[in-house]
Every structure is written in structure tokens, then in C-alpha cells.
Amino acid sequence: MGRRPQRDVQLILWAATGAALGAIVGSYVATLVLRWPRGIGASAGRSHCDGCAQALGPAELVPILSYLVLRGRCRRCATAIDLRQPAIEAAAAAIGLVAFLVAPGPQGLLAAAFGWVLLTLAMLDLGHFWLPDRLTGLLAAGGLIAGVAGWTPPPLPARLLGGLIGYGVLAGLAWLYRRLRGREGLGAGDAKLLGAIGLWTGWAALPFVLLGASAAGLIAAGLGALAGRRIDGATPLPFGTCLAAAAWPAWVFAVLR
After folding, report:
1. Whole-angstrom distance, CA of residue 214 vs CA of residue 210
2. What are the residue ranges spanned by the domains of the chain?
């Protein structure tokens, strides 16, 4: 009887560690998402208010809590803080919490890292229809290294096949759409992203990733229509965001279960 409470306490500590680490990583991810599209590096100088340009103090840089205490505004000039900052921090914290709950220890950290890179790509695609090759390449390299080292299933051959099939399916669909419709339908970044995802999940999970991403896209389009947006065949959709949202739970719960 004494071991069960001890395991529960350890699991709670792992989950808290994952959430705290995720919030810290999320603060960096949010800075990257907000700065990179403007041509500013995430490490370029101290964090500052976009309104008054004053450098932020340590008490203003606590993930999530600072936003809540400041009520979403700069304490000097009352400029609204971009809502994406706490939203990304909270999402990264949730990724860390779930990852360490599912697999406490090194495997949980690997799962969290996979989720954090996907979160970054998802937010960049959502806001700017941009999937940077550097981040997609980092994701692909991580999948290959994990496969070579044997840190988690699936085995390396399944990962390599997943990378080829993932890229090939969307690249082929993009080529076919362009030939039939005379315009772009899927970006090259989407194909590269699914290829990188395949290097993590292996080929067998790709149908579930595509199904989940397609469902997410349909839901997003439906919500947009309900909100009064015009939705047609030419309406751009951040499909990379949908792929990222579907890939992480598919890998965590299928591979690490």
C-alpha cells in the first residue's frame, strides 16, 4: 500500500516539472513566434514592451503569471500584451505536463521537445502561413537521431519509410492539384513537415495524422463560416498547423503508450 502513494507523488512531481519546464520553453517559443516573422532573432536583446520600448524586469517575465498579474497590459504605458504570449506559454506547459505524465523521465523530455517544435511551427503557420525550413529540418533531424539511437519506437526503417511517404504523399497531391487547377493548393512546407513527422511516427501512423489534420481543417473552416467568413476553394488554410496538432498526440499516445 505504501508504494502506490509514493508513485503518485513521483508522478505529480514529474508532471509539475514538465509543466514548469514547458512554461519556460513556451516563453522562448512565444518570443520566437512574435519576433522571427519581423526579422528579429529571439535572442536579439532583452525583452521589452512593444509600446514604450522599455526593457522588462524579472517580475514581468514570469511565464503566464506575469500576464495575469499585469492583467494583460504593460505596467508603464498600459499597452496590451500580445495574447499569443501567454497562450503559447500555456500550450507549452500543457505539452510538458502531458509528456511527463505519459512517460516520466528522458522519454517524456523527448516527447515534450517534439511537441514544442511542433507548437512553434503550428503558430508560425497559423499566423503567417510560414513553415521555416530550419525548424522543419530540426524536427526531421530529431526524428532521425531518436531512431538511430533507439530511444523510442518505431524502429529506424519504419521512420525512414515514414519520412519518404509523408513527403511524397503531400508533394504528389500538390503537383496533381497544380496540374488540374492551375494554381497552388498545398505548399511545399506542408510536404516537408509531414515528411519530418513521418521520421518521428513511422509510416503506420501517417494515415491517422492525415485524418486528424483533415478533421481539424474542416472544423476550422466550419467555425470560420459560422463566424461569417467567406469559405471557398481559394480560402487559405494553415494545413501545417493542422498537421502539427494531429501529429503530437498521435505519436505520444500511440508510440509511448
Report:
1. 6
2. 1-102, 106-257
